[in-house]
Predict the 3D structure of the following.
Amino acid sequence: MSKEPESPDIVGKGSQDTTSVDDRGLQFYKTHLAQLSDAQEQVPLKDHVRLILSEPKNEVIVNFPVRMDNGSYELFTGYRIQHNNILGPYKGGMRYHHDVTLDEVKALAALMTYKCALLEVPFGGAKGGIRINGRKYTPGEQEAITRRFTHDLGNNIGPDYDIPGPDMGTNSQTMVWMMDTYMNMQGAVDKNAKRRIVTGKSITSGGSRGREKATGQGVIYCIQEWANERGVRLDGAEFIVQGYGNVGSNAAQILNRLGAVLTAVQDHTGSIYNADGLYPRKLAQWVEENGGVAGYPGSEAIDDSAFWGVSCDICIPAALELQIDAEVAQSLDCKVVAEGANGPTTVEGAEVMRERGIDVIPDIMANAGGVVVSYFEWIQNKRSETWQLQEVDSRLHMKMKRAYYEMRAFAREHDIDNRSAALAVALRRINEVYVERGVFP
Ligand code: NAD
């Protein structure tokens, strides 16, 4: 979708060449199914549970027009996929990215189901998004797009039914626009009870302390557990990060406070390197002001392909899916990959890492901190409470640690990798509930 329309009045979405993007979405969905199938070998699922989990419960697609600042109109496609709600209301982020496809959102929604089950968060799994390059739009246009999308989703979302949160390309401001729109669609009496329609809000508008950094914080709690188990010192360890948005930049700043040194970063503007270390906080400020890591003073630009081969202890992919394929996995020079992003590893990439003895902390474990603190935010809104940061962090730490050890115990007991173990623990939990409850009627 171009900001400068070919026709002065109306731009449709039909002119986009989306073939390769659609292929990538499908590849991601198939990757997820392959990972799930490996995990299912460990957990004897009932047939009906296998069937139910094989497809999302609901797939909502809305096409909606928005008036741009220059008076033209654009038509947008928004998705909300509700994968499963046996454990609680649907929960999952909203992604604004030019590569969003139905298959991608389906895979992300399914991952949310298993993430919540693994972490014992009483939510189901959902995901949504709009296929746009948010950076092309003015703040006013972004607000209009978000408000119209929320309006058109209507009762397909709800504070006890389906609760959106932030993901790539969206942030606390996006969530506050969604909340305000939804609240204004309700009767005046009920309005304030609907604040928990979204999580990841700013603290001023009802968000939780610690939510902004929660996903990055959770990644680091996992890395600390891994380091304890492996006897690796984090003080002085070197790490690289792909993606310097919410997850990547927070993870980098927290790990750096533990003494680890950030040597290379890649984002959509390029790859940068400094053998003596980059300042994670200053880099975050630079990205905020300049839109990306490229040109950061005190760094040298390196090839995007060279980024993955930078020698380090810890690699944190925190951008897009399917980044670590067989070739990239072959070039990695690290001890562990902690998946801040959802689905960053292909089936072939995982195989190569296994052969090469590179540990993996899989996405549904490593990046679960976001949904855990979203759950805390939802509880605080429901009870009209405000928790201090220390309380949020210590509750998050406990939940991450418990799930991490459950994953590791399962992996050791069955001699399988962490990803299959994490998915198997989640599947076992979901299976038990379905067996107890049966299928209506
Ligand atoms: P974000 O929009 O804040 O940042 C995304 C980052 O990815 C940016 O630095 C961007 O430059 C980079 N990026 C985009 N395209 C790229 C490309 N082609 N090559 C290299 N870098 C590229 O997004 P985020 O919220 O940090 O999410 C990042 C990942 O973490 C996603 O996979 C998301 O699903 C996952 N995640 C996010 C949360 C959360 O709470 N925000 C929770 C769990 C998982």
Summary: The chain has two domains: 18-197, 214-366. The first strand starts at residue 10 and ends at 11. The domain at 18-197 is CATH 3.40.50.10860 (Rossmann fold).
